[in-house]
Structure prediction request, 752 residues.
Amino acid sequence: MNITGAQALIKALEQQGTEVIFGYPGGAILPVYDPIIDSSIRHVLVRHEQGAGHMAEGYAQATGRPGVAMVTSGPGATNIVTPIANAYMDSIPLVVITGQVPTAAIGTDAFQECDITGITMGITKHNWLIKDAKDIPDVIAEAFYVATTGRPGPVLVDVPKDVTQSMVEWHDCPTPDQLDLPGYHPVLEGDPEAIAAAARLLADAERPVLYVGGGVIKARAIEALAELVRVSGAPVVTTLMARGALPDSHPQNLGMPGMHGNYTAVTAMQQADLLVSLGARFDDRVTGRLDAFAPRAAIVHVDIDAAEIGKVRKADVGIVGDARHVIEALSAASAGLPRADLAAWWATLNDWRERYPMIYEPASDGGMLKPQAIIEKLNEMSPDDTIVVSGVGQHQMWAAHHWNYEHPYTWINSGGAGTMGYAVPAAIGAKAGQPGRTVWAIDGDGCFQMTAQELVTARSEGIPIKVAILNNSYLGMVRQWQEMFYEERYSEVYLSQDLPNYVMWAEAMGCVGIRVDRAEDVEAAIEKANAINDRPVVIDFRTDAAEKVFPMVAAGASNDDIMVHPIQQAGA
Amino acid sequence: MPEPFSGTTTHSPITHHILSVLVENKAGVLARVAGLFSRRAFNIYSLAVAPADAHERFSRITIVVDAESAPLEQVVGQLNKLINVVEIRDLGSNEALERELLLATVHVAHDERDHLLESVADAGASVVDVSDEAVTLTLSGTPTALNAFEAMLAQGYPSREVQRTGRVALPRLNHSATQA
Ligand SMILES: Cc1ncc(C[n+]2csc(CCOP(=O)(O)OP(=O)(O)O)c2C)c(N)n1
Ligand SMILES: [Mg+2]
Prediction:
């Protein structure tokens, strides 16, 4: 059967199980937009290519399936570079298709030409430039396989216009075992000897901590983790990328570690005699000053990416493998072993938990709204399986702490890259992938202004997300640093609470807009938002700009120098 | 510019490491390898690349890495993640058989060449081109031999142009059964 390269591309995407493409057309990708009309794949027309990328990421994080985005050459391609970088940092499976100028024009500075494979070489797992339409099924199969296996990540396929316009005889996409990838062999099973050694370390440790990262989420290792937690009796910290990997209500869950981690999670790692790192990567936001991080801890490091082991902190036992497989094997190897008594360790931890809970000063009567209280209220009034998507800043840290994550895949944020503007489009992608679930974007006023136009997409495509703007009129996180480390010299961080008018803006984009100034109106507003399911809702919560995120470890400081909330400092 | 490599890997402190990297011979593969080194702040001392099989399906890249810029396991680990990298061999100083090629054009008048030609013969180098003003020499051998030859030229002949290829390397054979 002879078809066009464009038809072959869409057919290949269908064969790879693509349900939805987030995209934006243009000259070089035009041929591919024709067969989309006849395809079973849903196309979501975004309002900016960055939105397409983040939607695909949100879709992937909410469903576990690869997100697919398609854009044109030149500016279309460069507009999606930020989401690709974001997906690379957070190991999100993402397949980006870019149009390219015709092969004969490549290298001539043709209209809308740019070297997107060169630009994205350092921020993709791999990328391809297709030079012949007959390669399309193979390259697309390789792209999906590489994006979703091993350590997941973004891939990019650049397709010149003459390739999609040419005629080609169709052949089915190869299956994974038929792929010609001699240099790519992801490992699933860990080395049994190393696993046995890790099990012995874990059994003998008196102050162990299971350091759980995003890899556990990616590997769908939730049940395996629960079993290891049960078998080991050890405390658990869940990083920013792993919130929900173990229910927050689980008594062994200490919460989130790191620069804005809670006191007990941070200090438990500092005092541990063993850290068992499961799909985490000793990010600087977790370790603080590296030479002062967990100084007495032996390290077991489990990661599917061999290059992560020993990259930051030397591992006493390194295990390369898929988190689910390795954790299952570790539980099995641990089962019969005599265990050290953890009672003293738990007594210490519980004492810290009691003395240093996550707290904030409640609003005074008639005072400004407290962002933490709003998040708690949202949590209380939302279904148990609500998906929370955040931007980057103070609101992100509060959303990570003050919402109780009881299920995996319910917390979506930009961790490694810290990409402002992530929330709205990622929430749209999450809702497109999980239409039956409530999706709340918890956003900052600064972040909202970066990508809010995608609410037009949400309205026109019938993707009714809900957005809570924690409007503190500031680039709050930057303001907090200027307050604490630059002697309150505030430079270029004020945004204004009224400009833009968020309610009018929301309404203009076809959403319902609600503004809340007073504590007594919070519940009613959330109730109203929860009742609307035919269009997106935006609530502009006017929050207290003076509120800061605590605890905090200053950049470059040791985690031992964690600053708790001023109320707790006074009481200590 | 990195410092010139001095001496054999056996005699000098081991600051350089030789990686023999088999890659799929696909468009952009050299850029991927080189880009990885610069992105991760690993320093390349020298790099040589050529097809490794008759079908040109694979190429072999011999990279001399400045091992002080990054732990070798990191370099190898990150390289291994490149989809087109098929195999990496870390050739430790004792296991590597290294060769390099040098071309040198030396400006020296006809009647002053005797001494130079003597040295060329001594070093096992040869003359590949001659004009009234200059001779072009070539020498292939160990990096040490090339270093010595270069040093000799530097002493006697201020006007010269030297080009080296960077080394290629393969593991030494197992000599236990035969004679070393
Ligand atoms: C694209 C991008 N630009 C700049 C930054 C630096 N940055 C981090 S947080 C922040 C402020 C975010 O402000 P807002 O969205 O209002 O959130 P808040 O901290 O006030 O909750 C800035 C500017 C970033 N992370 N991403
Ligand atoms: Mg703000």
Observations:
- The first strand of chain A starts at residue 2 and ends at 4.
- Chain A has three domains: 2-178, 192-355, 371-542.
- The interface with chain B takes residues 117-118, 121-122, 125-126, 129, 146, 181-184, 305-307, 309-311 of chain A (CB under 8 Å).
- The first helix of chain A runs from residue 5 to 15.
